[in-house]
Specification:
Elements (H helix, E strand, L loop, with lengths): L1 H9 L5 H11 L3 H16 L48 E6 L2 E7 L1 H5 L3 E4 H7 L1 H7 L11 H9 L4 E5 L9 E6 L6 E10 L4 E9 L7 E11 L4 E9 L4 E11 L4 E8 L4 E10 L5 E10 L4 E10 L5 E10 L4 E10 L7 E10 L5 E10 L5 E10 L2 H8 L5 H17 L5 H15 L2
Parallel strand pairs: 1-5, 4-6, 5-7, 6-8, 7-9, 8-10, 9-11, 10-12, 11-13, 12-14, 13-15, 14-16, 15-17, 16-18, 17-19
Antiparallel strand pairs: 1-2, 3-4
Helix pairs in contact: 1-2, 2-3, 3-7, 5-6, 8-9, 9-10
Length: 440
């Protein structure tokens, strides 16, 4: 093990040798190693994204230097301070704490195993649930050849969580994953794979964080959410990486008949963050609620692309993304409602609203519709505005200082989304985070 770690410490950049070193360090079975190497071959064959590609037209990655990064970093012992203490607590059904590429702590309620629920990190899933892992990992929701960054992820995934909820089982309390990056100049590949079988129910919360460092870091996340018929899943993701981080995240959800997905994406950290979030409504009467909150300051850049893909009739999607910007921060939002041929009685809504708090900030919003059915209801809207002077004057005239008045207005702007979150702990975190951002 020590020889492998020495070899790992000397690696810089991404290569076939680095894939082998990662697999050796994790002491993985041959089939995992072979899958990683096959993904690396796909990565080398796929073209890099170009500014001429619609999804990357407003995204500049020229200052991302993958060749100088360590491809993975083993945690140097200790607990993942600041990322959660791993204690189960009354409000959680299970907790996984990851520090860099190492799982630092794990706990789970005995009731999970009693229901046949599998909740563990991906390394444990490989060892103890190999057949399930192989069947679902980057095969259905986000296949390995989805794109160049996704193929790189398939070659270098580290840690992550695996959730399998069998038919009719219900996990009402949150299953939480805390990930913290601590090693400077390194890459971290997080993965969430959740399979919710027919009639089952679960609640998953992913939290990502790191302290700001001087050297550039890279994080790549893939989230796969598979909901069978009549399944229900609430998924929350909170991204608060340090300002040295370049973050690229891909999420896809597959919804069966009568399935319900309620998702929330919170983007607060990273210098550069690009998120691709899509819901495939493949079953009739399925419902996807897709909420998003982002708040950029300084020179942060946030790019969100969303897809509401209606592949079956009588399905509903409801998307609301809200963002605030200050300093010289910039955001890009592009959303597509796509109704496939035969997907009659589709009901789809898409809304993106932006609040610009300084002259140097900028928001771009591009909603899109692509409809191939003639009996649908699809609406979309986008707004970009500044804080109204009249609103500030109204509050100041009642003895409220200008800074506090602006904070109240921003909180009111996000309130409709926050109120749709049925978790007081997450609501409280968002309220504190927004207040902190306003006060910077």
């Amino acid at each position: 093990m020590s020889a492998t770690l020495t070899r790992e410490a000397a690696l810089t950049g991404f290569s076939r040798e680095a894939v082998e070193a990662l697999s050796d360090w994790k002491q993985e079975p041959d089939w995992v190693r072979e899958a990683r190497l096959a993904a690396w071959d796909i990565y080398e064959q796929l073209p890099a994204p170009k500014r001429s590609d619609e999804e990357w037209r407003r995204t500049d990655t020229r200052t991302l230097k993958l060749d100088v990064l360590r491809p993975f970093a083993a945690a140097n012992g200790g607990s993942a301070a600041g990322a959660g203490d791993g204690s189960l607590g009354a409000a959680n059904a299970g907790v996984v704490v990851q520090r860099d590429a190492t799982i630092a702590d794990f706990s789970a309620s005995p009731e999970l195993a009693a229901q046949g629920v599998i909740f563990c990190d991906l390394d444990t899933a490989v060892r103890e649930h190999g057949d399930l892992f192989r069947h679902y990992f980057m095969t259905e929701a986000v296949p390995v050849d989805f794109g160049k960054f996704e193929a790189l992820h398939a070659a270098f995934w580290q840690g992550g969580i695996f959730l399998y909820v069998p038919k009719n089982a219900r996990v009402e309390l949150p299953l939480r994953s805390f990930v913290q990056a601590t090693e400077p100049g390194s890459a971290l590949f997080t993965h969430t794979l959740a399979v919710i079988e027919q009639g089952a129910e679960a609640f998953v919360v992913d939290s990502y964080s790191s302290e700001t460092q001087e050297r550039q870091a890279f994080t790549s996340g893939v989230v796969e959410l598979i909901l069978r018929d009549d399944a229900k899943l609430r998924y929350v993701q909170v991204q608060d990486w340090g300002r040295h981080t370049w973050n690229i995240m891909t999420e896809r959800a597959i919804l069966g008949r009568d399935a319900t997905l309620n998702s929330l994406h919170v983007t607060l950290g990273a210098k550069f963050s690009k998120s691709s979030i899509g819901s495939h409504l493949r079953g009739e009467n399925s419902l996807a609620e897709m909420l998003g909150i982002y708040f950029g300051d300084g020179d942060q850049f946030f790019d969100h692309h969303t897809w509401q893909l209606h592949e079956s009739p009588h399905a509903t999607s409801d998307l609301e993304f809200k963002g605030a910007l200050k300093g010289t921060a910039r955001s890009v939002y592009s959303g597509l409602i796509k109704v496939f041929e035969g997907a009659q009685k589709t009901d789809a809504y898409q809304q993106n609203r932006n609040l610009v708090l300084s002259r140097g900030a900028r928001a771009d919003s591009i909603p899109n519709l692509e409809i191939k059915a003639n009996d649908v209801r699809c609406t979309h809207g986008a707004t970009i505005s500044q804080v109204e002077a009249e609103h500030l004057f109204y509050l100041q005239a009642r003895g409220i200082e200008r800074s506090e008045a602006q904070k109240l207005i921003v909180e009111g702007f996000f309130r409709p989304v926050i109120d749709r979150i049925p978790d007081e702990e997450i609501q409280g975190f968002l309220e504190s985070a927004i207040a902190r951002k306003v006060g910077i």
